[in-house]
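Hi W., the zinc ion complex you wanted:
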Amino acid sequence: MFLAFCGPASPAEEADPPAPVPQPQPSAQIERGRPVWLLDALGNLLSLPKKLILLNRKVDSHSVSPKTEQALQAFLAAHPEAAKDVKVRINQWTPVGEFRRLAQNKRIEWYFRIFPGILTTLFSSVTGRILGGDHYNPYTNTIHLFSDDTAIALHEAGHAVDFARNPFPGLYAVGRILVPVELSQEQTASDIAIQHLKENKDREGELHAYQTLYPAFGTYAGDAAGLPYGNYIGAGVGHVMGFWQRHERRLGYQALDEARVGGTVRNDELSRTLLARREESRVTLLETLGGKHDQARLE
Ligand SMILES: [Zn+2]
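Structure:
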């Protein structure tokens, strides 16, 4: 799917062994639940509707690869403000551990931790191992991850960054009952995730993120609109918008590669390439993306 940038592999390249998948460093901050085959298979099955709505079989797969975990580690390393105290639980069932964190999380006022913190933590820590549902619990400052998808993992970590930056995290958490606050939090978390992928020049990751995070946002927006089957309609709109954004960015990257001369991008060359292809809209896109063909934003 993401082979558009790659040329055909030469026989010599084909003969090379595949690069080893980097293994995440052991970290006390990230804990994994013990795999329970039957439970995980059932959880995977129960999440079929979510897989369908997001067109992503990795959603709530209850089996998270080292690659996803490593991407999360790299994200946390790049965001020390959130990494300081956050906990990541990968497919783990630990209500006791979570209630301990709830009691100790001094960033949230005690009364917000009592209500709605206790109820939220009860639901969040008890049901996930079977029902899935990646989420960030601000009352315990914990990321719960069940999907083997980097974009989703970084989105949840994006929530942690958003809360770490907020001077009133308790109020911000409770404010989520208001639809505009909820949607704004969702948008912000996705923006932080995508920005991280751009800064790390992870093109594949970025293009994939549009495919997953746009429809996911659509489910929230669709629900908020109060329409029957609103989340399905919203996801559908999100898929179209995500597809379009991915398409535009991919063309932008292609043009960028073509304009690259000796390691530097010539902006005049970039716009000439695009105009020669009668792709005026791409020039406008690049201007929108980063001022006057500022390739730094695109790279
Ligand atoms: Zn979210």
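Confidence is low (pLDDT under 50) at residues 1-15, 290-297.

W.
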